[in-house]
Design goal:
Layout: E1 11-14, H1 28-40, E2 46-48, H2 60-73, E3 80-83, H3 89-97, E4 106-110, H4 119-132, E5 137-141, H5 143-146, H6 152-158, E6 164-169, H7 174-183, E7 189-192, H8 198-203, E8 208-211, H9 218-229, H10 233-250, H11 257-265, H12 282-294
Parallel strand pairs: 1-8, 2-3, 3-4, 4-5, 5-6, 6-7
Helix pairs in contact: 1-2, 3-4, 4-6, 6-7, 9-10, 10-12, 11-12
Length: about 300
């Protein structure tokens, strides 16, 4: 199989789900199968222990084991972005100091949540994290989960730090993304954090997407984003409609409940999640099964 080549952290990165057994222990064989599946599907890099990986319910030891399992299965030697974030700055810096960064190319660090810091507080937090990290830092703006929106002004201020190389933008505010794209340094990466907004974000200067749906449909989704990066929006739009139709069902009962159910339907992993999430209802499973067939996404 031939793979397209893009610069580092350009293109598609699945935010890898974490497969669990029925007793909620980690199924490492299924995790390695998933890495093999998405890698053969043509994705460009891997995000380990992001939100979709249920990182808030995995222990420090489990995170190390998950990372090692992904690295073992990474036959294409793809870049790895590792999720390291939190709302306790000093604790996060301690985590960074106690993490082995062998085989980690960058960290994805979520905007501090729950505390609701001011813009000055967000800047101070990220500057401290970037100073402590031995690898580049990618900001993660997801106000739907954190309770605050990291403004374009804040992102652009942080883009001045030499160890902050980009932002995963999941605000779904396209005007904010446009402002970042217009004013950012040339080498600062604007990465979509929303699957269906990836095309418009690439059209204004984004470099790709950290994705949920590419766990389940790596080939179709990667082909679509690669066409977009090459400027072939006409062909890319033909596939986008299929993903627009199925996307809302992925989040109907929480993420990664929907995408895990699709992966189970496709025979790749089980759909078990850890509480407080619960596995997909029968009704959601039936809807997803029908959508996969209707939208011709069953290959």
């Amino acid at each position: 199989m031939k793979y397209k080549t893009f610069p580092k952290f350009h293109g598609v990165a699945p935010a890898l789900v974490t497969p669990f057994n029925e007793d909620k222990s980690i199924n490492f064989q299924q995790l390695e199968n998933l890495v093999d599946y998405v890698s053969k599907g043509g994705i460009d890099y891997l995000v380990v222990q992001g939100t979709t990986g249920e990182s808030v319910t995995t222990t420090a030891d489990e995170k190390k084991q998950i990372l090692a399992s992904v690295q073992k299965a990474n036959f294409r030697n793809l870049p790895i972005v590792y999720g390291l974030g939190g709302n306790n700055t000093e604790n996060l810096i301690d985590q960074i100091k106690n993490t082995s960064f062998d085989g980690i190319d960058a960290i994805l660090s979520v905007c501090p949540y729950y505390n609701k810091p001011s813009a000055r507080g967000v800047v101070a937090h990220y500057q401290a994290v970037a100073d402590a990290s031995p690898v580049p830092v990618i900001l993660y703006n997801i106000p739907g989960r954190t309770g605050i929106n990291m403004s374009a002004e804040t992102v652009l201020k942080l883009a001045e730090h030499p160890n902050i190389i980009g932002v995963k933008e999941a605000s779904c505010i396209i005007e904010q993304c446009m402002e970042i794209a217009h004013h950012k340094p040339e080498d600062f990466l604007l990465i979509s954090g929303d699957d269906v907004q990836a095309l418009p974000i690439v059209s204004i200067g984004g470099v790709g997407v950290m994705s949920v749906i590419s766990n389940a449909f790596p080939q179709q989704f990667s082909d679509m984003i690669h066409l977009t990066l090459e400027g072939n929006f006409t062909e890319a739009r033909k596939t986008l409609g299929n993903f627009l139709a199925i996307d809302p069902f992925l989040y109907e009962e929480g993420n990664p409940v929907g995408v895990k159910k699709i992966l189970e339907i496709k025979g790749i992993i089980s759909s078990h999640v850890r509480m407080p999430l619960v596995s997909a209802s029968q009704q959601l499973g039936e809807k997803l099964g029908k959508m996969i067939i209707q939208e011709k996404l069953n290959s």
